[in-house]
Amino acid sequence: MPKNRNTFSSLAAAPRRLAQRAVHSGWAWVQRTGAVTAAHPGRLRFGAIGAGTKLAFPQGTVFGEPWIRLGDHCIVGEHVTLTAGMMPDLDLGPDPILRIGNGVVLGRGSHVIADTTVTIGDDCYFGPYVYVTSTNHSYDDPHTPIGKQWPRMDPVEIGPGCWVGTGAVILPGARIGRNVVVAAGAVVRGEVPDHAVVAGAPARVVRTWDAESGWQPPLRTPAPVPIPEEVTPEQLIALGEMGEA
């Protein structure tokens, strides 16, 4: 049976609602203040951080930032880890280790671990909890704990315009071409050609594109309807705000 609500319970709920609003407002202020930008880098001193780029608060683990370069207009979600080198406070030489291009989006909880060079091209979009690493454990010696054996390192390159789905893993030595779709949960190693879709663990090419035959196998869904030319950016923003209401 539902409990009867009376005047006293309604009065008791009022302070809770006020406290809840205060907590939410305070946390929103913390998030705004703790975000990292070129104008407000906080304690982080990246090798470069472009105009319009923002790292949401709270950040994940970040070290080796003098060897990390972020391009313009990037969005780095909450709890994203960005590291250059195997541990903090190393001298990694004159060249950047982790390069992130312009317009890159890294989803919440993603990790980019660059013990050797990792390059992410322009306009790549990562879903949440993507893991990119240039280092892997080795297990050559069956008598030594794996964690105590020296790891193997191999550079990683992700071409421009890629979409990497939630929970995907990009392993050392991966070379991913331009405009590639990496399906959610895929584990990628080796070479991936331009304009391909890869899925699975280990990932394999499941769809390709070329100028003569288009997508093979053919797409099963209709092409999205483009936004009409007469629609302004202000109208799109207003439409988005309506959806959040």
TrEMBL record:
Pfam hit, one: Hexapep
Similarity section: Belongs to the transferase hexapeptide repeat family.
Alphabetized CDD domains for the sequence: LbH_MAT_like
Entry superkingdom: Bacteria
GO MF: acyltransferase activity
Assigned EC number: 2.3.1.-
SUPFAM superfamilies: Trimeric LpxA-like enzymes
Key words of the record: Acyltransferase, Repeat, Transferase
Annotated organism of origin: Streptomyces huasconensis
Presence of the UniProt keyword Repeat in the record: yes
Protein name: Acyltransferase
